[in-house]
């Protein structure tokens, strides 16, 4: 298993590579994982989201336990929406409450699949080979907007605000996802703890089926959906999502009016 991260260097450039013993072994890019030969101390680098997806495909109703609680049928094809690239931030960056929105903001701790090669109409085996690795996602939602208009559920608007897709802190290749759990805490209190083995569609099945609908590109992320324990975040609260082996993704919901531009440097694209 290798751990991959993305950073901003002192000169403002973005570097990507394999992390080992406090150093970044730089590679050209995620889709061209060729070592450059440069080795950089992590102490000189500022962490960013570990990839810069062109799109984030976010699943709904992909866990048997949650489907049972909601009394929803298990889907025959992944149910998904898209989150825009501008919604992505890294671990340590602040989630910003939209200025015009005073309603409920919700966390969803999830596993994220990072695509490593272009993928279209892939078989399950081809899809498995197209997965670069796995990361952690907090799929943030302005919940009160979902059904604000009774004639049109606003999934993309509610989930697409700037800073509403937290990704990180790293990408882990060779990850044994079936043995792992997602643990989400809110100000240190556990709110979610569920097994990834309960997924309706395995990661390879997700990639294969979604690739029948749209082309997946290197760096794109599939958020695998969440299970039981979703809840709201109060201003100033910290949400931390952990998956053993990948790490902990931690973000604060910024108090209204707070200047968080510097903290949100993790949204800088590659």
UniProtKB/TrEMBL annotation:
Species this chain originates from: Paraburkholderia megapolitana
Coiled coil start-end: none
Chain ranges passing through the membrane: none
InterPro entries: Fumarylacetoacetase-like_C, Fumarylacetoacetase_C_sf
Assigned keywords, A-Z: Metal-binding
Protein name: 2-keto-4-pentenoate hydratase/2-oxohepta-3-ene-1,7-dioic acid hydratase (Catechol pathway)
One annotated GO molecular function: acetylpyruvate hydrolase activity
Database matches in Pfam families: FAA_hydrolase (PF01557)
Domain Fumarylacetoacetase-like C-terminal: 55-252
Record flagged with keyword Metal-binding: yes
């Amino acid at each position: 298993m290798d751990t991959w991260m993305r950073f901003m260097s002192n000169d403002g450039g973005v570097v990507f590579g394999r992390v080992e013993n406090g150093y970044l072994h730089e590679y050209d890019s995620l889709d061209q994982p060729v070592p450059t030969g440069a080795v950089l101390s992590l102490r000189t680098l500022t962490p960013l989201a570990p990839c810069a997806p062109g799109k984030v495909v976010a699943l709904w109703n992909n866990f048997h336990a949650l489907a049972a609680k909601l009394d929803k049928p298990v889907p025959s094809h992944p149910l998904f929406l898209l989150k825009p690239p501008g919604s992505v931030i890294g671990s340590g960056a602040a989630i910003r409450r939209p200025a015009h929105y005073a309603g409920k903001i919700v966390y969803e701790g999830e596993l994220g699949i990072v695509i490593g090669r272009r993928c279209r109409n892939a078989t399950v085996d081809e899809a498995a080979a197209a997965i670069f690795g796995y990361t952690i996602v907090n799929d943030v939602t302005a919940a009160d907007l979902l059904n604000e208009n009774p004639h049109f559920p606003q999934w993309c608007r509610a989930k697409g605000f700037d800073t509403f897709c937290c990704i990180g802190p790293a990408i882990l290749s060779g990850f044994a996802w079936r043995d792992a759990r997602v643990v989400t805490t809110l100000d240190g209190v556990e709110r979610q703890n569920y097994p990834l083995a309960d997924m309706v569609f395995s990661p390879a099945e997700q990639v294969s089926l979604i690739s029948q609908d749209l082309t997946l590109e290197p760096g794109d992320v599939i958020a695998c959906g969440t299970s039981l324990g979703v809840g709201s975040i109060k201003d100033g609260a910290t949400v931390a999502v952990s998956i053993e082996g990948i790490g902990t993704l931690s973000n604060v919901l910024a108090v209204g009016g707070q200047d968080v531009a510097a903290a949100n440097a993790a949204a800088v694209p590659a």
